[in-house]
Design brief:
By secondary structure, the chain is α/β, with parallel strands linked by helices. It folds into 2 domains: 136 residues, Response regulator (Rossmann fold), CATH 3.40.50; 55 residues, Arc Repressor Mutant, subunit A. It is built from 10 helices and 5 strands. The protein has a 5-stranded parallel β-sheet, with helices on both faces. Strand 4, helix 4 and strand 5 form a beta-alpha-beta unit. Helix 7 crosses helix 10. It is elongated. The N and C termini lie far apart (59 Å).
């Protein structure tokens, strides 16, 4: 009796650095069980190539031109929820990984991970699992199980406005907040205007004091 043939995992790699992107492809493509079907140099190209090639898994860099990896992940998952996305990070950056999970990613890979670690992560995501480090387990559990999350302070604010307020309370500038949340400076200014209005605050300093009193800005 002939055993059924296991199809290789179809993989797309998105990274704007050609040396890393092509090097990773050269590392993984010869392996049995993995077929690198496409490579993208920015987030928009990644979204288009997912439509064209229908990979099983996407390894997605975060910082890319045209469209960043978070927005690209959101677009890919919305159009093709069966595709597993692994984001690439320089380290266990809580903000980046949590933003990626909210966008629909199933985990992350560290740049510089060993070959066997990358293969395990790709296989896990392809099988429907999630991949993240132990240090992030508690925080990721909150994201994946919002029903058990305690009520946040200032419930009149949207989740995004609460994120912005938390970073304001932590002393971040508008530019730093925009970069950390992958939003435009104009969007951050609009959020801050809304926060001031909803909290009936007199100025940014008033907002910071009230936010810190409520426990924000401690991350």
């Amino acid at each position: 009796m002939t055993e059924p043939t296991t199809l290789p995992i179809r993989l797309l790699i998105a990274d704007d650095h050609p040396v890393f992107r092509d090097g990773l492809a050269s590392l993984l493509d010869p392996l049995p069980g993995i077929d690198v079907v496409a490579r993208a140099s920015d987030g928009a190209e990644a979204v288009a190539l997912v439509d064209e090639h229908r990979p099983d898994v996407v390894i997605m860099d975060v910082q890319m031109p045209v469209m960043n990896g978070i927005d690209a992940t959101r677009a890919v998952v919305a159009a093709h929820p069966e595709v597993g996305v692994l984001v690439l990070t320089m380290g266990e950056d809580d903000g980046t990984v949590l933003s990626a999970l909210r966008a629909g990613a199933r985990g992350y890979l560290r740049k510089g991970a060993e070959q066997d670690e990358i293969v395990r992560a790709v296989s896990t995501v392809h099988g429907g699992g999630v991949v993240f480090g132990a240090s992030l387990a508690a925080r990721i559990a909150e994201v994946l199980a919002p029903a058990g999350r305690p009520e946040r302070p200032f419930p009149e604010l949207t989740e995004r406005e609460t994120e912005v307020l938390d970073l304001i309370a932590a002393g971040r500038s508008n530019g730093q907040i925009a970069q950390e949340l992958f939003l435009s400076p104009k969007t951050i200014r609009n959020n801050i205007t809304s926060i001031l209005a909803k909290l009936q605050a007199t100025d940014r300093a008033d907002v910071i004091i009230r936010a810190r009193d409520a426990g924000l800005g401690q991350g």
